[in-house]
Structure formats: structure tokens, C-alpha cells
Amino acid sequence: MNFNNEYKKIKSLISNELLQIEKKLTDSINVQPPLNNALKEFLTLPSKRIRSVIPILFEKSQNIELSDSQLEFLAIIELIHNASLIHDDIIDECQTRRGHKTIGADFDNKLAVISGDYILSVCIQKLTEIGNLKLIDEISKTINSMCIGEINQNFNLFKLGTIEDYIEKTKNKTAHLFKTALFGTSLLGEKQNLHLAQELGLNIGIAFQIRDDILNFTSSQTDKPINNDLTQGIYNAPVILGNKDDNYQSGIEKTKILLNNYTNKAKKLVLNLEQNAYQNAILKFLELLEDV
After folding, report:
1. Whole domain around residue 234: which residue ranges?
2. What is the CATH number of the domain that holds 81?
3. Which tens digits make up the pLDDT trace of 158-201?
4. Three-state SS at 100
5. How many domains are contained in the chain?
6. 39 in helix, strand or coil?
């Protein structure tokens, strides 16, 4: 099963909503050239937009047409994610992202740090325009979790933690943003299915990161070199479950089981939604995550 081809079919169901989000990503970017064009190009490079796709499918599976405020909120989620990528590229010393030079490589790390911060300031501006205090609180907690996850990871380099530590780090660095994307979109929607939205977002976010950590060992089709996490001392599930950093093959197989545990939890939650093309698309996406 080819992930990219199948995922394109899923995105085609909601191409209009994704196009509107794409426009919203750059409508508030206004800094001095040539950085202005570089940031707009970076934000609109071909991307999976998974943090938008799942909430849109979730809402449309309930026969809800997304409002402008919901689409604006998902643009905020994408901007937060992209700001974190700019900062991650500095930390990881990456020269390319999505087949293009990173902001740090194109300019310098000092300007890249400020650029990531600037994008976060745009998010704050957009959030205040939506004017929902619950969303502001949720976003602030999520960004806090992302930072804590990165800080804790830095202090635990070359340390073999527990699988519970790994899951907690995964929630902080990745899954909470997925959870917030679904929660916030549902909060602004006609049917506030908040608990289901949060649980689904959390489980999909964990599963997505576990899959990414497996691919770090098995795939060269990424911006990062293969085994990049291992060489940097970031011991993720394949290493933890393999018990030592030079015996990760058995850990990979065990990590696939862990991945399936979370996709199965997500599938059970999705079955609470009405059966239609959008619900089926979420289930299909979960199957794609498992095919690693």
C-alpha cells in the first residue's frame, strides 16, 4: 500500500477546505523581503496537513460544513506546527525540509529562530481575533507541552528510558497538538463532540509519532538521515523495546505492535461517527499508519 498515493485520495475529499486553510497560512505574514517570500514559500510547500485533514474529516463525518473560524483555527494549528519545524531544523542542523532549503540554511540560525517566534506571534494575533478563551487556554497549554517535551528530550539524550517515558514524551511533542486540533475545531463547530475529539486526536497523534520513529530506522525517504535519532542519542520506542541501542531490529517489530495498539484505539473511537465517506477516510488513514 503506497501511503502517498492513498493519502492523496483522502485529501481530495476535502480539497476545498484545505485550499482555504492554505490561503490563511500566509495572509498575516508581513516582514521585510526577502524573508517575507521565503516564509510564505515555506508555509505553502507541499505538505500532508494531517493536523488539518483529520479534524475536517471528523466534522464532515457529522454532516458539518466547516465555518470560517474553524478553518482559521486549523490554519493556526498548521502555523504552530511549522514554527516548531523551523526551530527543530535549527536543533537538528537540517539543511533541507520538504525538498527545499530550511530557513536556517537559506538565511542563518539567528533569523530562523526569530522567524519561528514571529509565526507564533501571528498565531496569537489570529487566536485573539477568534476570541474564544477556551481555545487560547488550550493552545497555550499545548505549546507549553511541546516545549517541555523538547527540553526533557534534551536532558535525556543517550539515556534508555522506559516505554512510559517515551509515550509521555510523544504526547508532549506531537500528540497534544493533534488533540488540540480536533478539540478546537469541535469546540467551534455545531456539534461539540469534545471528549471523542480529544481522545481521537491523542491516539492518532501518538500513532503518527510511533510510525515516524519506526521510519527513522527503516526509510531513507525522509529529510533526516536514516538512524538520525539514534546517532543523536534520542532513544525512541524501537531502541527501548530492543533493550539496547545496537539491537533495534527486535524493537522495531515490538514497536509495530505498539503502533497497532493505538491505531486500534482510534478505530474504535471512529466507529462512534456516522458511517460515510469521511468516516471511512479516517479509518483508511489509520490503516495507512499501520502499513509501515
Report:
1. 3-290
2. 1.10.600.10
3. 998 999 999 999 999 999 999 999 999 999 998 889 999 999 99
4. strand
5. 1
6. helix
